[in-house]
Amino acid sequence: MSLAEPAALPVAASAAPRLRLLKRFLGRFKASLPAYLLLLPSLVFLALFTYGAMGRVFVDALYQRATPKAPIRFVGLDNISAVLADPAFTGAVINNLIYAVGTAIPSIGLALLFALALARTHAVNSVLRAALFLPVLIPMVAASALFLFIFLPNVGLLDYYIGRLLPVLPNWLGDPDIALSAIMVITIWKNAGYYMLFFLAGLQAVPEDVMEAAHLDGAGPFMRFRHIILPELKPTFLFVIVIATLNAVTQVDHVFVMTKGGPSNSTNLVLFYIYQQAVEHYDIGKASAATLLTLAALMGLTALSFRTMANREGGP
Amino acid sequence: MKLLDRLFKDAPLATRNEITPKLGFVLTVLLAIVWLIPFLWMGVATLRPASDGINLMAELMPSLKPTLDNVRDAWEIGDFPRYTLNTMIICTGILLVQFVTITLAGFAFARLDFAGKTLIFYLFLMQLMLVPVLLIVPNLSLVAQLGLYDTLTGVMMPFFASAFGTFLMRQAFEAIPTELEDAALIDGASLLQRIRHIYVPLSMPSFSAFAIISVTSHWNDFLWPLMVINSPDKRPLTVGLSVFTATAEGTQAWGTIAAGTLMVIAPLLITFLIFQKRFISSFVTSGIK
């Protein structure tokens, strides 16, 4: 008894701070509980469809099944190398790069032009803004249905009004050399009005007194644009470029409705390739590998743009 | 929000003073007309009688004998009332659940202090970067495992939580003065009562902005419902229209395609024309995330 007592003391001494820590932790947890309960509904769905999905893509990319009913088999990085060796995938990546650059530059350029021309609040301008914004609201599938007729050989809208002036009537969607550009036209038509909104918002931040001073100093519209407006719009540019890049990878409904990736894979884009692998070929392994590669590329790009934006201090 | 107010204010005086040379304005007017041509064709082709023949199909001048035959045909071939109903169920279902999830989470981020706040905030931020459209393959297998393949619930579920909506509501709630809540607290109002009676009613503009963005984007969704839905009677408008277009394209019934397209896009376009300012400001907000 007398021996046991001093032995018990050090135990109690070392347990006390741990107990206090536990108590503090429990207290903090208890105080945080209402917040956790409020966040729970969102976190459940995010866990299932965002973080869980990320994890599943990662795991699924490591497995393969020969047929839909065959047992799954661990194949390591085979799916990744199979996708990278698939000319259809590399072709889709190249198409997507061309598509991204070829739609982003014209639609951003047009958006800037529209915004500069329509910056002034005026009844006519708001009608024009609405006209340019309308395509943003309609489903890509509906836009595709309209453009199917516009690009229809011989009798379509384009050939009826302009094609007749050309020496040879091209088959807009049937010619592998032209089809991707035709698809790009729809995207530009659909997105320019959307990006215009951000430039309109950005233009409102141009300081009036500086513009006025430049005007008094005899700076013409071009000089004022180059030296005052353009620097002010830098964050808007960066932001719109990120959105345009994301759009280029995520908008494929027109490919689905108009060309199914053809003729001879000339309009195949990465997301459509993923869809084909998963739904048409039941190859979840390959589809997941392609998804993983695309996600990695996109996240790298987003991180890069965030860093650039942070460095420039104060993005949109 | 200050940005929005500025958007609708007149441009600064100096900026107003010829922001683009006149040539730029003329070019914009011409392009705005070009931008409307597909819509114009849709309207004209919808009313064009089949007797005009395929060679006049591209004519933008309306026919002298307008007819509603195309509308009737489109109505009979595609089950548009059913598609519209499905789309409305999907959009409403998503929106109602989102309202609950984003209100609760938005409040937690705006007003409560809790352990791991930054970490959880970043977890939400991840959803903005991960681009849900790209996760269709794992999400389809999950939906199938949950027994929700070929159900409208399966179409809706991945969108029940919205990081963008959460951030929007967080911003709105932060702007509400705490004095209002303190008064309710003294009256003995519980947490949920305070959210319900103080925060929600004072944040209606943010809710309506979010509603516009959410409904517009899910009204137009295509690839995801296409993958989840198998039964023809569960198709939303976009999937219905794509099947309808593929069928009618084979028979060269372009007037019918135009009529079908018109039916699909009319509801949203009419709503836009009525609430123009609201729409545009919501779209700007969505970009400011």
From TrEMBL, chain A:
What does the UniProt entry say about where the protein is found?
Cell membrane
The record's annotation in InterPro entries points to: MetI-like, MetI-like_sf, UgpAE/MalFG_permease
Q: How does it sit in the membrane?
A: Multi-pass membrane protein
> What stretches pass through the bilayer?
33-54, 97-119, 131-158, 178-201, 233-250, 287-306
- Looking at the keywords, is S-adenosyl-L-methionine present? no
* UniProt keyword list: Cell membrane, Membrane, Transmembrane, Transmembrane helix, Transport
Q: Does the keyword Transmembrane apply?
A: yes
Q: Residues in domain ABC transmembrane type-1? A: 93-305
| Family membership noted in the UniProt record | Belongs to the binding-protein-dependent transport system permease family.
PANTHER family from the UniProt entry: BLL4140 PROTEIN (PTHR43227:SF11)
Q: Indicate what this protein is called per its UniProt record.
A: Sugar ABC transporter permease
Automatic annotation (TrEMBL), chain B:
Pfam families to which the protein is assigned, alphabetical: BPD_transp_1
| Residue ranges constituting the ABC transmembrane type-1 domain according to the UniProt record | 84-275
Q: Where in the cell is it found?
A: Cell membrane
Q: Which residues cross the membrane?
A: 21-41, 85-107, 119-140, 146-168, 198-219, 253-275
What's the main place this protein lives? membrane
Q: Which InterPro entries match?
A: MetI-like (IPR000515), MetI-like_sf (IPR035906)
Q: Any signal peptide, and if so, which residues? A: none
Please provide the record's keywords in A-Z order: Cell membrane, Membrane, Transmembrane, Transmembrane helix, Transport
- Topological type in the membrane: Multi-pass membrane protein
Which PROSITE patterns would you find in this protein's record? ABC_TM1 (PS50928)
Family statement: Belongs to the binding-protein-dependent transport system permease family.
Which PANTHER family is this protein grouped with? ABC TRANSPORTER PERMEASE PROTEIN MG189-RELATED-RELATED, LACTOSE TRANSPORT SYSTEM PERMEASE PROTEIN LACG
Name the record gives this protein: Carbohydrate ABC transporter permease
